Amino acid sequence: FVLDYLVEEVLQRQPEQVRSFLLQTAILGRLCGPLCDAVTGQEDSSRMLDALERGNLFVLPLDGQRQWYRYHHLFAEVLQAHSKEQQADQLPGLHLRASEWYEHNGAPADAIYHALAAKNFDRAAGLIELAWPSMDANFQSATWLSWVKAIPDELVRHRPVLSVAYAWAVLNDGELEAGEARLWDAERWLDRPADNQNRPEAPSGEMAVSDEEQFRFLPASIATARAYIAQSQGDLTATVKYGREALTRLPEGDHIRRGPAAALLGLTYWANGDLEAAHRALADAMANFQMAGSIAFAISGTYGLADIRMTQGRLREAIRTYERSLQLVSEQGQTTPRGTADLYLGLGDLYRERGDLEAAAEYLSKSEELGEQAALPDWPCRFCVARARLKEARGKLDDALSLLEEAERQYFRSPVPEVRPIPAQQVRVWIKQGRLAEALAWVRECGLSVDDGLSFLREFEHITLARVLIAGYKSRRPGCSIQDATGLLERLLKAAEEGGRMGSVMEILLLQALAYEAQGNIPLALAPLERALALAEPEGYVQIFTDEDKPMVRLLSEAAAHRFMPDYVGRLLARDKPAEQKREEKPFRPPAPAVQPLIEPLSERELEILQLIAQGLSNSEISARLFLALSTVKGHNRNIFGKLEVQRRTEAVARARDLGLL
After folding, report:
1. Cα(124)–Cα(200) distance, rounded to whole angstroms?
2. DSSP letter assigned to residue 31
3. Lowest mean pLDDT among 118-127, 194-203, 252-261, 624-633
4. pLDDT tens, 136-186?
5. Can you tell me whether residue 60 is helix, strand or coil?
6. Average per-residue pLDDT in the chain?
7. Do residues 506 and 555 share a domain?
8. Is residue 218 part of a domain?
9. Residues 644 and 535 in one domain
10. What are the helix and strand counts (H, E) for the chain?
C-alpha cells in the first residue's frame, strides 16, 4: 500500500521536469546542488532540492545549512526501480558523471562506487589504484579489496601498481600464496625487455599505470612484500635479503616506505633471538612512521618492543614502552588511531605479570571497549590469549582453555614471530588440570625431544616439554624421566643466559627448583629459586611465582624460613590465591612477616596510586598518568582510605609512611 501511494500520489503527479530530476538523481545516496547539476546537466538543482523539501516530497536535509540531502529510503527504492525500468540505457552515463564529480571533489570512495556501477572498469581501476596508499594507511584493506575484486582480473593484471597493492591487501589477511601470485603479475611487467618483445611468461597488451609515484618505487615495494612473505614463512635468510634490498632502493627521507622494511628486519632479528638488534630495528621503523606522520603505524610496533623487553626480563621498561605509546596517542586529541586497543591489551598482560589482576582486567576491558575498529588485524587472537592468561591466573582453567581455542580460530599467519605458540599454552593449562595424556600426545605430535637442537623460536615449547616431564615424573608416567627434565633445563638455561633472555632464565630457574622439589631435595631447590627471586624482585614480577601453585608455595615458605629476601617473599606468599585453590588448600601463614601490616593489604594498583598521591598529583593528573577513568581513580582512593582507616589524602600519606609503605 505504501509503495502504491508513493508511486501514484507522488511520483506520477509531478511535472516532467521534476519527475526527470527525481529519476536521474535516484542513483545518489546523498544529494547536493552541484552534484545534481553534474549528473542531470541542469543548473538549478539547489533550487529544485529546496523546493522538493518544502513540498514534503520525501527529501530530508543532512545538515543545518541544507547543503546535503537524501531521499527517504522507501521513496529512494521506488525511484531506483522506476529509473532502472524507464531509463536503463542512461544509467551508466549518470553514474559516470557522478563518479567524475566525486573524484574532482575529493571523495574517492564515492567516485569508485559510481565508476563500478557504470561498469567503467578502466576508470574504476585507476581510481582504486590511487586510493590504495590512503586506504592502507587507515587499515581499510578489506574495503579496498571488495572494490578491486569487482574488476575483471585480466584488467588488474595489466596494472603492476594495482597488482602490488592487491598483494599487500591479501597479505594483510594472511593469504601468502595469493600475495605471491600478485607480486609475480607485477614483476613480469618490470622485467619486460625494452623492445617490448613478449616472452612466454610476459603478459600481452599494454601496461597501465595511474599512480606514477608508486610505480617509481615499485621494485622496493615488491622487495618489502617478499620480505613479509619470507618472514611469515620462517625463511629468515630471505627476509634479510629482501629487507635490505628494499632499504637500498629507498631514499633516506622516504620514511613511510622505509618503515615496513626496517620493521621486517627487526622481526627477523627477533625470530633469530638477536633481541637488541631487533629492538633497534623496530624502534627505527617506528621512528620512520612517526616522522611520516603515520601514528597508527608508529604505535603498531609497540607490542614487539615491549615483548622483547619482557623476554629480557625488563618488565618495568616494557610497561614504560606501552605508556609512551599511549602518551603519543593522547597527543592526537580526539582521534583514536588503529592500534590503541592493542596498547591497553599489552598493558593488561604486563599488569597480570605484576600480579595486579584487578588492573589487568581494567586494561583488557578498555581494550575490548575500543574494539576492532581501534585495533591491529591480529588483535582478536591476542585479546583471547590475554584473557585466557588472566583466567588462568584466577584459577578458571576451563575458561582459559575455551579462550585459547577461540584464539586458535582467530589466528592467521603474519611476520610476527610465534614465540609462545597457542598449543603450547594449552598444554600448560592441561598440566594444571592433570590432563597428562593430552600433554604427552602434544609432545609426540610436535616431535619434541630433550636431545633437540635449541633455538629461540622453540624455546617456549622446550620449556613446556620440561614442564610435561616434571609433571609426568610426579605422576609416575612411563618415559617421564626427571633426569631428562633437569638435563634439558640445564641446556635451556645456558642458551637463555647467552642470549640475554632473562625472562626465560627466571622461568627455567623456577622449573629447576620445582624439579628438585619433586625429588624431595629442598636444599638443592633453593639455589635456583633464590637466583630467580633476585632477578625478579627489581622488576616487580609476581605471577611467574604464583602461577606455580602449591609446590612454589612450599619452596617460598622455605626461602622465607631462611630469611632470603623476606619482604619480597612475604609479598609473594601473601598474594590472594584463586578461589578454586583456596577451597583445596588450608590457609597458609608465612613465617616471615608480611610487608603490609594491614588487615587487608593494598593492591599493587592502590600502592601505585598512593605513591602518586604522595607526590601531590590530583585525581585528574593520576587519571591521565595511568590512563584510567577518573571514576576508577576515585574508587581506588576510597579503598585506600578505608584500608588505611583515614579520611583525607594527607592522613593517608602520613599513615602510609608510618607503615613503611612509602
Report:
1. 29
2. B
3. 194-203
4. 988 889 899 999 999 999 999 999 999 999 999 999 888 999 999 999 999
5. strand
6. 89
7. yes
8. no
9. no
10. 38, 2
Phi/psi region, residue 540 (left: phi>0; alpha: psi -120 to 50; beta: rest), is: left
Q: Are residues 550 and 481 in the same domain?
A: yes
Q: Cβ–Cβ contacts within 10 Å for residue 18, how many?
A: 16
Is residue 34 situated within a structural domain?
A: yes
The pLDDT value recorded for residue 426 is: 98
CA–CA gap between residue 661 and residue 418 (Å, rounded): 40
**Is there a contact between 436 and 397 (Cβ–Cβ < 8 Å)?**
no
Contacts with 243 (C-beta within 8 Å, 6 or more apart), sequence order = 223, 224, 227, 261, 262, 264, 265, 268
Q: How many residues does the chain have?
A: 662
Nearest to 257 by CA among 157, 124, 168: 168
Residue 628: inside a domain: yes
Read off the pLDDT of residues 195-240 as tens digits, 9 standing for 90 and up: 344 443 556 678 999 999 999 999 999 999 999 999 999 899 999 9
Q: 387 lies in a domain?
A: no
Look at residues 64, 86, 108 and tell me which one is the last residue of a structural domain: 86
Q: How far apart are CA 322 and CA 303, in angstroms?
A: 8
Neighbour-count burial of 549, counting CB atoms closer than 10 A to its CB (0-12 exposed, 13-18 middle, 19+ buried): middle
Q: Domain tally for the chain?
A: 3
Label residue 82 by pLDDT band (50, 70, 90).
confident
Percent pLDDT > 70 in the chain is 93
Do both 461 and 571 map to the same domain? yes
Answer positive or negative: Cα dihedral of 454, 457, 461, 463: positive
Helical H segments across 394-433, by residue range: 397-410, 422-433
Q: Determine whether 180 is exposed, middle or buried from the number of CB atoms within 10 Å of its CB (0-12, 13-18, 19+).
A: middle
Tell me the C-alpha distance between 285 and 580, whole Å: 45
Last residue of one domain, picked from the residues 86, 115, 140: 86
Work out the burial of residue 372: count CB atoms within 10 Å of its CB; fewer than 13 is exposed, 13-18 middle, 19 or more buried. Answer: middle
What CATH code is carried by the domain that includes residue 490?
Answer: 1.25.40
Most confident region among 71-75, 346-350, 614-618 by mean pLDDT:
346-350
Are 218 and 161 contacting, i.e. CB atoms less than 8 angstroms apart? yes
The CA distance from 396 to 386, in Å, is: 14
State how far the Cα of 51 lies from the Cα of 179, in Å rounded to an integer: 52
Domain co-membership, 446 together with 571: yes
Q: Determine contact, residues 243/224, Cβ cutoff 8 Å.
A: yes
Q: Are residues 469 and 539 in the same domain?
A: yes
How far apart are alpha carbons 430 and 437 in whole angstroms? 9
**Do 659 and 618 touch, CB atoms closer than 8 A?**
no
pLDDT at 588 over 80: no
pLDDT over 90 (residue 112): yes
Same domain, 502 and 562: yes
Whether residues 449 and 508 fall in one domain: yes
466's grid cell: 620440561
The CATH number of residue 26's host domain is 1.10.10
Q: What is the residue range of 82's domain?
A: 2-86
Q: What is the pLDDT of residue 6?
A: 57
Q: Could you give the 3-state DSSP secondary structure of residue 434?
A: coil
What is the C-alpha separation between 124 and 499, in angstroms, rounded?
A: 52
Q: In three state form, how does the secondary structure of 19-30 look?
A: HHHHHHHHHCCC
pLDDT at position 587 over 70: no
Question: Does the structure show a pLDDT above 80 at 57?
Answer: no
Angstrom distance (rounded) from CA 269 to CA 258: 17
